[in-house]
Amino acid sequence: MKPPGTAPGSDRTLIEHLAHVRWIAGGTGAGKSTVTMALARRHDARLYNGDRAEHDWVARSTRQHHPHLHALLGAAPGQVWAGRSAQEVFQSMASLHGEVIGFLIEDLLALPNDRIVLVDYFGVLPRDVAPLLAGFHQAVFLLPSPEFRRRVLAMRYADPLRARATWGSHGPEEMLAKRLARDALWDEEVRQQATAHGLCTVSVDGTRPVEDLVTEVATHLRLPQAPGCS
After folding, report:
1. Rounded Cα gap, residues 222 and 217, in angstroms
2. In terms of Cα–Cα distance, which of 222, 187, 228 is closest to 205?
3. Residue 224's Cα: distance from chain center in Å?
4. Burial degree of 98 (CB within 10 A; 0-12, 13-18, 19+)
5. Does the CA dihedral 150-147-217-18 come out positive or negative?
6. pLDDT tens, residue by residue, 94-140
7. What pTM, to 2 d.p., does this model score?
8. Which is the CATH superfamily of the domain at 12-221?
């Protein structure tokens, strides 16, 4: 029996089964969730939130097949970050080692395919998405400018409760600096892989109206208008 969360090899049948899926990935703080929710409303699409699904993946993971993901099981807030450099945290990411794409595919195949599914998830790389696509238009990677991300994350963790839930007792300023450095490494990995696989990246710096960004992403993803929309 195939272990849970094992990524299948690319084949035409799998590509056909996922033809209704559109991937919105990239870097943290780029507005992926804002864009995805707006697109879901506008185009009557189904949302798939990868961040929420991660908790279930950790529970389903095994030490043998998903060592980096399984290491998160029972981890205390901030444990992943404390005592490590940004480079070490980056290298420990389960997504970097291809450990989440199998779970993601299993979840998507279990959903109805009666309408477009929009995947909103930070932790997926172009390398893992490319073999699942019938065309380049099915995926887009949003990458924030460093300053825009800094502002977004600073506001996000200005809430002491949220900061404590994420970092535990560790100093939030130190952890945030490490998070920004780790995310910069992830962005560069996404950018290089997207170029290598001919997939689209969109730069986000906060100067454009959100509606313009939503329209650009919708156009790239070739999303059909919902019934009744003009």
Report:
1. 8
2. 187
3. 23
4. middle
5. negative
6. 999 999 999 999 999 999 999 999 999 999 999 999 999 999 999 99
7. 0.92
8. P-loop containing nucleotide triphosphate hydrolases (3.40.50.300)
Q: How far is CA 131 from CA 12, 127, 191, 193, in A?
A: 10, 8, 17, 13
CB contact at 8 A, 203 and 143: yes
